[in-house]
Amino acid sequence: MKIIAADVIVTSPSRNFVTLKITTDEGVTGLGDATLNGRELAVAAYLTEHVVPLLIERDPHRIEDTWQFLYRSAYWRRGPVTMAAIAAVDMALWDIKGKVAGMPVYQLLGGASRTALQTYGHASGRDIPELFDSIRQHLEEGYKSIRVQTSVPGIKALYGVAAQAQATGERYDYEPAGRGPQPAEEDWDTRAYLRHVPTVFEAVRNEFGPEIPLLHDGHHRMTPIQAAKLGKSLEPYDLFWLEDCTPAENQDAFRLVRQHTTTPLAVGEVFNTVFDFQTLIREQLIDYVRAASTHFGGISPLKKVMDYAAQYQIKSGFHGPTDVSPVGLAAQTHLGLAIHNFGIQEYMEHSEATNTVFEQSMTFADGFLHPGDKPGLGIELNEEAAASFPYQQAYLPYNRLADGTVHDW
Ligand code: CS2
Ligand code: MG
Predict the structure, then answer these.
(1) CATH assignment at residue 245
(2) Closest ligand 1 atom to the C-alpha of 244?
(3) Which pLDDT value is given to residue 250?
């Protein structure tokens, strides 16, 4: 079997997605997700200009060899653009292999280790009553684990809080990234945040009791010692995890955090290779691997990092926001079903328009996600629908401190 075509499809049903479609001489096709939020066209060009020509005539069954060829032969390794492009190829080849074998990809990865994946949903609110409503709504929908984000008194806008939700009728208004030529500017004050967050978790525990696994995302905004302080002050509320408490380019920073707190730590949604996790895993500085198949080079390297993590009882918590397309989500859902050290899967429903473009065999019921049993990844791209949603420039917001300094994301 040979690859005869590879097409890059950019579509923007409610947000931008970049999809690679590989076609073989036997008519079998495979899909891969190459979406890099806010930098989508860089990956599309990387694929079209530099990867697609290399794929033609190759044997689609040689997944590992193709991965190594794209990674090593470029000389310029790693980075989010390169690794999102390689991820799309890797996923599309697994999709093809599954279709040829007549099996869902999770069967090729070793078969199911569980019946379905436990997920967590995103609850948020501008104040406590709005947050409680959001938590209740998620519980009613079957979610068993809940991420909790709120506005902070003194900070005007805060990413991760669906502030306009009621006004727009959209559930998660902070996704997609804002469309337009410039990113929205938000404000930030770490001291105010550190004072407020523990009071929110205290209120949530008082209202909903001790059982629900609760998560929180710090979006890389604290210094290591501030992160340590937050972890410590959240200990009474028994978090499932504290995510991205400090930027992790410097993996050593997590030593300091870990030294001070028993709150479980999750990190890695912006990581793109195993080297980003090397110290964190080997020194047992984290508890959950947050990488997404889309930004980490695909299913193949994500499986390897999870096997490495398994030696240290570190589990998965793959990144699953709406900017990971249904193809990327399906890829990591197959992997999550197969690996033994699965932890939890982040899940936000995609919009209706997105689900029209990406027809899915994935199911979500009672808080659990399953990739379905169609051969391959189980996603079909409706190209006609995709073409009706042209690309629109969009950027994630960023934030500045009171004195105008740009702060960490
Ligand atoms: C977030 C994401 O899901 C998460 O944990 O951190 O919403 C993230 O901000 C976006 O994926 C950025 O593209
Ligand atoms: Mg996050």
Answers:
(1) 3.20.20.120
(2) 6
(3) 94
